[in-house]
């Protein structure tokens, strides 16, 4: 790698993850970037697109699905065998639990994830399944990926660990009526969830914040934390 630091970005084939890789490629410092995607084909397609703008970039596709334990372990073994360490892990992959008419917000926030509202509206996913899936990715999957890759981060002389947070997860602003996601719903029951009602997403991101602190305060104090 000629001294270049190795960075793994999950969910890097689209959305915010794709933009993160672009920002890394735009840096004056050269990095070796592992472009993570649920499928190797999507990761490779993203690299092809990135290479058009950054032809001299050092990008490598890697398959990693944080909902799949076997995929996480396989990705770890690949990085361990080929590189022996990891300098930075950017936990970007996540789910955004949207409801009806929320596609504009998804685009505006550049949040990578499945539009679970469409599956709910189509009867393909129950509310319990939606909540469980949101937590599985934003909390459980992110934790397991970080825990699995910790030994490789600790092999770096200057390891970095990044989590993608959300302003909607703040407990201190959860009662602020000026914040759009805190607007009171119309009277009556059952409530009709709108594009600003994101209880599963907000709750999971709050849970991720606690999980993130666990990793930094306890097992991996040596790693520098970045929250974005």
Give a summary of the structure in a few sentences.
Helix content is 43%, strand content 13%.
Walkthrough of the structure:
The chain has 228 residues and is α/β, with parallel strands linked by helices. The protein is 43% helix and 13% strand. The chain has a domain at 5-95 and 139-169 and 205-227: NAD(P)-binding Rossmann-like Domain (Rossmann fold). It has a six-stranded parallel β-sheet, with helices on both faces. The chain is globular, with a radius of gyration of 18 Å. Belongs to the short-chain dehydrogenases/reductases (SDR) family.
What is the element string, with H for helices and E for strands?
Answer: EHEHEHEHHHEHE
- Please tally the helical runs, counting DSSP H or I stretches of 4 or more residues: 7
**Assigned CATH class of the domain at 5-95 and 139-169 and 205-227:** Alpha Beta
Outline type: globular
Overall average pLDDT: 81
The CATH superfamily of the domain at 5-95 and 139-169 and 205-227 is NAD(P)-binding Rossmann-like Domain
* Fraction of helical residues: 40-55%
DSSP E strands, number = 6
Return residue spans where pLDDT drops below 50 for at least 5 consecutive residues. 97-114
User: Strands across the major sheet, in which order?
Assistant: 3-2-1-4-5-6
Strand content: 5-15%
CATH architecture annotation of the domain at 5-95 and 139-169 and 205-227: 3-Layer(aba) Sandwich
| Rg, alpha carbons | 18 Å
Structural class by secondary-structure content? alpha/beta
CATH overall fold name of the domain at 5-95 and 139-169 and 205-227: Rossmann fold
Measured between the Cα atoms of the first and last residue, the distance is: 27 Å
| Biggest pleated sheet | 6 strands, parallel
GO molecular function: oxidoreductase activity, acting on NAD(P)H, oxygen as acceptor; oxidoreductase activity, acting on the CH-OH group of donors, NAD or NADP as acceptor
Keywords: Oxidoreductase
Family: Belongs to the short-chain dehydrogenases/reductases (SDR) family.
């Amino acid at each position: 790698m000629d001294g270049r630091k190795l960075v793994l970005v999950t969910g890097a084939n689209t959305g915010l993850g794709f933009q993160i890789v672009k920002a890394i490629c735009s840096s004056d410092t050269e990095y070796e970037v592992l472009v993570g995607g649920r499928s190797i084909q999507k990761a490779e397609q993203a690299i092809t697109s990135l290479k058009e703008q950054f032809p001299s970039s050092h990008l490598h596709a890697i398959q990693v699905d944080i909902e799949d334990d076997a995929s996480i372990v396989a990705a770890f073994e690949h990085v361990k065998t080929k590189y022996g360490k990891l300098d930075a892990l950017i936990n970007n992959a996540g789910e955004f639990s949207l409801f009806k008419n929320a596609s504009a917000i998804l685009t505006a926030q550049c949040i990578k994830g499945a539009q679970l509202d469409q599956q709910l509206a189509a009867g393909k996913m129950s509310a319990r399944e939606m909540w469980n899936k949101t937590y599985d990715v934003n909390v459980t999957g992110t934790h397991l990926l970080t825990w699995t890759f910790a030994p490789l981060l600790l092999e770096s002389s200057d390891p970095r660990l990044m989590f993608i947070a959300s302003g909607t997860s703040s407990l201190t602003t959860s009662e602020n009526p000026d914040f759009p996601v805190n607007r009171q719903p119309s009277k009556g029951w059952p409530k009709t969830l709108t594009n600003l009602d994101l209880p599963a997403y907000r709750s999971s991101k709050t849970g991720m914040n606690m999980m993130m602190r666990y990793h930094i305060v306890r097992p991996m104090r040596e790693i520098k934390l970045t929250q974005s």
